[in-house]
Amino acid sequence: MNAYYLGLDLGTSSVKGILRSADGDTVKGKAGYSDRKVSAWTDAIQRMLSEMLARLREKNGYVAAVALSSQVGTYVIDGEEIIGWQSSAGKDELLEIKEKISQDEFIRAIGMPHPDIISYPLPRLLYIQRNYPTAREVLMPKELLIRELTGETVTDPFSMRGLVHPQTMRYAEKLMERLGITLRLPPVKAPTDCAGYVTACAAKTYGLDAGTPVYLGCNDFFAGLLGMGVFEAGSAFDLSGTSEHVGFISEDLMPNGVVSGRYFNGYCTYGGTKSSGVSCAFAMKQFGLDGLDLEQVLGEKPPVFLPYLNGERAPIFDENARGVYFGIREGTEKRHLAYATLEGVVFSLLDIARCNGMPKPDRLILGGGSAVDPLMNRLRAELFGCPVLCVKENDTSALGAVMLAMLGNGVYTDLQEAISACVSYHEPIDPIGSYTKLLEGRFGIYRKLYGDLKETFELFNKGE
Question: pLDDT digits over 444-454, tens only?
Fold first, then answer.
């Protein structure tokens, strides 16, 4: 029989899976879910694996190992209550924590400055400690799924960024004591460590063989970067999805970045949006995205769009912000609004990159949902001033998990070998340059709009 390696990625609205053999043969699967319940996650995984394993049997294959990836910033309290990463829970706690603890203390305790992100472990756990007095244990989705498959409870340092020092692999216990956090958390191991083995009960439920090794994997973001081949220092990336992350890899910590912390190789400095994928879906639903011609639409002075439909994280970190179309005229058509929406999303990425001091990259590696949109790719190439390189396998987090399973199981000796074997790209999209001046002018309007509207957003939301 032929050995295949399974990567499972639990996202915000679906679970995705990739089975891959050492010679590159692939079986893919996906199943959606709508309810925010643990049972919705496990039901989706069962449905997806039922189809994938049926196809695997046709190939005379078997699952040799599993690794997982999942959304982080989502917390499961005592196996039931879920606080999602998009929740505003922890807003006040973050302010309190950053008043009490200096960035130098954070760097010593967690290996990075603490970003202004309320879904990071410390503010969210402090919120849970105060608002769920009977809570005993808190897990993220990946830890819960590992327990479901193996009966073991364990996490990795990247999923617990902001609470675990990635080099010592230890929790910031002194900070937790100082804040009064006493919740039970899982022990920490490396992403390529074996968390345990598929139990007889899990084998019956999910169709996997009992005794199959399950490797920890990591957060969906870092797994996605691996699946894009982002590894070397100097690599620049844009990973899109429900949210979108843009940044670069460096040899040293960048303490003034929006977020900068340890990566597999060097340090990862980046910022993440909150509503980029939501904005693209909104434009598709309301206006349609077919037939958009960059030169024609730009020549007709379309509106400028702020893509803050659900508030925004980097670089403004404002839960009150909302979507705005500025400059609507009598002749404005749906296609102008559709274009403005996609442009606004790319403007938000450029804004993050510049706030982080990203050096001009040799290329921008692109993966995720919006990587298939030719207009957005053209805008990226023009605004970032470099070729855009799109990965062929767009389920990058699931592929990253596969690579960690293969590395853990000894198929590859290191991550660079795994990337060389598993990651490939389409032909690059080179910048033309003739649109740059006009787009930069519109970007200046985009940046000014938020500052002008900041107080108005707050007033508006007080009336919601």
Answer: 999 999 999 99
